[in-house]
Amino acid sequence: MSHRLFFGFSLTPHRHVHRMVLLTFREGCPLTTLKQLYDLQELDLELDRAGAQIVTLTKRIQDDDAVSSARQALAQRRESIQQMRRQQARRTQDIRDLQTKANDQEARLYGGSIHSVKEMEALQSEVKGLRDQARIIENDEVLTLMLQLEEAEPAEVRESAALQHLEQERSALLEQWTSERSKLEAAMPMLRSKRQEIASACTPVLLAQYEGLRRVKQGQAVAKMEHGTCMGCRVTLPVRELQRVRNATNPVLCPICGRMLYAG
Ligand SMILES: [Zn+2]
């Protein structure tokens, strides 16, 4: 039987695969119904989906980046606020010390103990210097720190609330993801054992063909045929192909996509 006769039209790029399957079937392997292979595929697809979903859920469960970076940013914000407050307290104390010193020197100046004009002028200049220094610290440093704290403190409150919200949200999601993953993991042994049951009823040769096709056909080796259309490639097949699929005792491959056709 030529390939042309088998498919009823020109050779396709899959011809070697088709011929190999055809020859295998013609060599007389025991009949494994397409229904079995189709059921096997349904289980394999379910296992694929569940496996992929478990991987996705595990990644989500492990990925703590959003919360940990928000937590880190808040810790940095708090540390910066503490530093500013400490600096503000230190510089405020420096101002007080300068003022106290200025007051003391002023008291000496007007206390009547100083008689020399030169000494008086020097003392006046020192008092002025101390007061100027205090003013500069107040204007340039303490006020700047106050302005910075006025911005940083409400930001810390906002960030803290946002982090709390994020943590609550993640905790709820973690619960949901963990439960979803547990359900999937719990379902796996049953799916695997069902798969094993069906697979062991298939002939090894046909099973190998099925698995080979699945690898190159995005997991879909068997395509359902509905209303004359192969659901694997969505191409409507010639009428005589439909007849062949319905009457065949061995699997017939779709001439377009090369999948095993299952009439359902
Ligand atoms: Zn097809």
Provide an overview of this structure:
It is built from 7 helices and 3 strands, in the order ααααααββαβ. The protein has 2 domains: 3-60 and 202-262, no CATH class; 65-187. Helices cover 75% and strands 4% of the residues. The chain is rod-shaped. It is mainly alpha-helical and 264 residues long. Strands 2-1-3 form a 3-stranded mixed beta sheet. The structure holds zinc ion. Residues 223, 230, 232-233, 235, 254, 256-257, 259 line the site of zinc ion (ZN).
Q: Helices and strands in order, then pairings?
A:
Layout: H1 3-7, H2 15-26, H3 34-62, H4 65-109, H5 117-201, H6 204-216, E1 222-226, E2 229-230, H7 239-247, E3 260-262
Parallel strand pairs: 1-3
Antiparallel strand pairs: 1-2
Zinc ion binds at residues 223, 230, 232-233, 235, 254, 256-257, 259.
Number of helices: 7
| Total domains | 2
Class computed from helices, strands and strand pairing? mainly alpha
Shape: rod-shaped
Q: What is the alpha-carbon Rg in Å?
A: 42 Å
Q: Estimate the mean pLDDT confidence.
A: 87
Strand order of the largest sheet: 2-1-3
Low-confidence stretches: 1-31
Encode the helix/strand succession as letters. HHHHHHEEHE
The count of β-strands is: 3
- Describe the largest sheet: 3 strands, mixed
Distance between the termini: 27 Å
Brief sketch in words of this structure:
With 264 residues, this protein is mainly alpha-helical. The chain has helices at residues 3-7, 15-26, 34-62, 65-109, 117-201, 204-216, 239-247, and strands at 222-226, 229-230, 260-262. It folds into 2 domains: 3-60 and 202-262, no CATH class; 65-187.
